[in-house]
Write a structure and sequence with these properties.
353 residues, alpha+beta, 11-stranded antiparallel beta sheet, 7 helices, 25% helix
Length: 353
């Protein structure tokens, strides 16, 4: 696989990922964009004194592109006079610095990952070879961003569907290089450290081992991966995917896990699209890789377990799970679907992997 690095008209970095070495990537961004001023941070981070958590502010993002028609999609290839964020006339996978980042200017970094040049595709419609190229891009960007000044944690994720709040229909995801350890990860790291101190064991390992032993909520298992609905799932349909060998991030996956992941991930996404029946619209979801931060104690990083979290806010056909008073106001989740019932359904819609 080959990576080609270039720059957009305003100086932002763009990376093409190709399966073959011979693809030329010489197209120039012809848009008249003003240079990015990297001396000015586009966002601000404040500290919430009661919760002990950071809160980010990115007021400039109000001007970002919002539900453009297909013929004005900024993630499609540039063709003729239709110029986009991707200067090439075609591409396989492209990653670029977000024009409207939540973080940047030395306080983190945000990138956009275009999974394919096909506007009407989805990640679930990719081939295993295409999915493997996206995995390669995620891994490559994780490795680089973890060395980036101001980045503490890397999160590769996809928001899919208008119900989630997606404003661009083109199949794409994002990579956030947070300038801090996120609240969710901080709580998990603390829980794992407390468990290690109390029992001498790894909490992640025990969770996965318990699910594999009980098998009630396991929805997919291969030689290198285990996917299950967690015992205390917060979302109507929620799956966690762990490699059998615990590693801190995508860069540490072994060849067996890396080889199996495209088929496993595609199968999970395709099952999600079948949960609510053949006539239901595509299932909205959020899918993201939880990876170990840098800048924490070595033992805490070693104890962290890379895993994927995939969930939907749709609870039944035509009905969404809204985060209303209890969830949004108090952070107290009340789920509408029992995890065991969700696991049953996700096994029912398997395609035979």
């Amino acid at each position: 696989m080959k990576r080609t690095t270039t720059r957009l008209a305003d100086g932002r970095e763009l990376f093409y990922y190709d399966r073959a070495d011979g693809t030329p990537r010489t197209a120039v961004d012809r848009r008249p964009l003003p240079p990015v001023d990297r001396s000015v941070a586009p966002s601000e981070i404040r500290h919430h004194p009661l919760l002990g958590e950071p809160v980010g502010y990115a007021a400039h993002r109000q001007a970002r592109t919002y539900h453009p028609p297909a013929d004005q999609c900024p993630l499609c290839p540039s063709r003729g006079d239709r110029l986009s964020e991707i200067p090439a006339e075609s591409y396989e996978v492209a990653v670029f610095e977000n024009r409207f980042p939540s973080f940047g200017g030395g306080t983190g970094r945000c990138e956009v990952v275009c999974f394919t040049s096909e506007h009407d595709a989805s990640f679930a419609s990719l081939t295993e070879e295409q999915a493997a190229l996206v995995l390669h891009a995620w891994t490559d960007r994780t490795a680089e961003l973890l060395r980036h000044p101001g980045v503490t944690q890397v999160y590769c994720f996809e928001n899919r569907g208008a119900e989630i709040g997606v404003t661009l229909a083109h199949p794409h995801g994002q990579i956030y290089g947070y300038p801090y350890v996120t609240p969710f990860t901080r709580r998990a790291v603390d829980a794992v450290a407390e468990h290690r101190a109390r029992t001498g064991a790894n909490l992640y390992d025990e969770i996965v081992a318990a699910e594999r032993a009980e098998r009630r909520r396991v929805v997919l298992e291969t030689g290198a991966w285990t996917a299950f609905v967690p015992h205390a799932a917060r979302w109507p349909y929620e799956v966690h995917l762990y490699p059998r060998r615990r590693v801190p991030d995508l860069t540490a996956l072994d060849e067996a896990a890396r080889a199996e992941l495209p088929a496993v991930y595609l199968e999970l996404l395709r099952r999600f699209d079948r949960i609510f029946g053949p006539d239901a619209p595509p299932t909205p979801y959020i899918s993201g890789w939880h990876q170990a931060p840098v800048g924490i104690a070595d033992e805490a990083r070693d104890d962290f377990a890379l895993h994927l979290e995939l969930f939907t806010i749709r609870r039944s056909p035509g009905k969404l799970k809204f985060l209303a008073g209890s969830e949004s106001g108090m952070g107290a989740f009340v789920n509408d679907v029992l995890p065991e019932a969700a696991a049953d359904r996700l096994r029912e819609v398997a395609s035979g992997i």
